[in-house]
Specification:
Blueprint: E1 23-27, E2 36-44, E3 49-63, E4 69-88, E5 92-105, E6 111-112, E7 120-132, E8 137-149, E9 163-174
Antiparallel strand pairs: 1-2, 1-9, 2-3, 3-4, 3-6, 4-5, 5-7, 7-8, 8-9
């Protein structure tokens, strides 16, 4: 057992390093364009890898088979995996990843009136950047291109559109 000498009264002791951050809770404000509220949790898997689970709920604009414009409940569940190619989970930086977003709104007799929501699964690669402030607040942005797979209740506004932008902007706090 080694003995560590005590600091003299005039020497300040070194503060203990803060515990590593393991989770970031995030709010996704861009989903308000739908309008939907969405929250996410980014979970550290290692210094360079993390996974994010998101969930959202809102009211998507649709047109019924009778031609009436209305809104219907919209559910969204997302999962992504990130690899920090510059920086890390703790300090932020550039990350690459893959993401999938499942959106379900209304039923097959309805047509969405917006291209902001793609029904079914939207999956593809992402490029992102996360900035971590000293007080553990974060801003995280991601953008990519996703392929629309399957259906999710209402028909899409443009049925020929098989690719769409995929990504988010998140504001959160790490702990």
């Amino acid at each position: 057992m080694q003995h560590k000498p005590r600091a003299f009264a005039s020497e300040p002791e070194e503060p203990a390093p803060p515990p590593p951050r393991r989770v970031v809770l995030e709010w996704l404000p861009l989903r308000l364009l739908v309008p939907a509220g969405a929250l996410a949790a980014e979970i550290r898997l290692s210094d360079s890898f993390s996974t994010t689970l998101s969930i959202g709920y809102g009211r998507a604009p649709v047109r019924t088979s009778a031609g009436q414009d209305t809104r219907t409940p919209l559910w969204q569940v997302g999962l992504s995996v990130q690899w920090y190619v510059a920086g890390d989970f703790e300090d932020g930086g550039v990350h690459l990843g893959v993401s999938g977003l499942l959106s379900r709104a209304g039923d097959a007799s309805m047509t969405l009136r917006t291209t902001v929501v793609q029904p079914g699964v939207l999956a593809g690669p992402l490029l992102g950047f996360k900035y971590v402030f000293r007080n553990r607040w974060i801003v995280d942005s991601q953008i990519g291109i996703g392929a629309r797979l399957g259906s999710g209740g209402a028909k899409p506004a443009d049925e020929d559109q098989t690719f769409a932008l995929l990504g988010d902007l998140a504001v959160g706090w790490a702990f």
